[in-house]
UniProtKB/TrEMBL annotation:
Gene3D superfamilies: Cytochrome c-like domain. Keywords: Electron transport, Heme, Iron, Metal-binding, Signal, Transport. It comes from Bosea vestrisii. The keyword Flavoprotein does not apply. This is C-type cytochrome. InterPro entries: Cyt_c-like_dom, Cyt_c-like_dom_sf, Cyt_c_1A/1B. The keyword Membrane does not apply. PANTHER family: CYTOCHROME C (PTHR11961). Residues 22-122 form the Cytochrome c domain. Residues 1-21 form the signal peptide.
Length: 128
């Protein structure tokens, strides 16, 4: 195989993988699993769980007006993509004693898509 052909094949595979890495529309569909307990977007309020605007970069137990478990408040976690992925797979394993009653999302692609959807929303609930 000639070098240009190899380079083109590699580039095509990389682009396809990158394009599949995060699908906001699929993440929005996955969000339906979360919306019974959480809100996001302008005007979002705390429900059974805290609103999730500006989740990434926020510390656990930091949403005003939400009554967190002592486990969540004491977890001392800053939410980023890796931490969120670990948490959403099995919330009670990541933060034993959390109030979050959710079986988890085990599929890495679905987690990446949900992450992309959540990352659209700033602290004020507006899409960035």
């Amino acid at each position: 195989m000639k070098l240009p052909v190899v380079a083109a094949a590699f580039a095509a595979a990389f682009i396809a993988t990158s394009a599949q890495a995060q699908d906001v529309s699929a993440g929005e569909r996955s969000w339906n699993k979360c919306r019974a307990c959480h809100q996001i977007g302008e005007g979002a309020k705390n429900l059974v769980g805290p609103q999730l605007n500006g989740l990434f970069g926020r510390h656990t137990g930091a949403v005003e007006g939400y009554s967190y478990s002592s486990a969540n408040k004491g977890a001392n976690i800053t939410w980023d993509e890796a931490v969120f992925a670990e948490y959403i797979k099995d919330p009670k394993a990541k933060i034993p004693g959390t109030k979050m009653v959710f079986a988890g999302i085990k599929n890495d692609k679905e987690i990446a898509d949900l992450t992309a959807f959540l990352k659209q929303f700033g602290k004020d609930g507006k899409k960035m």
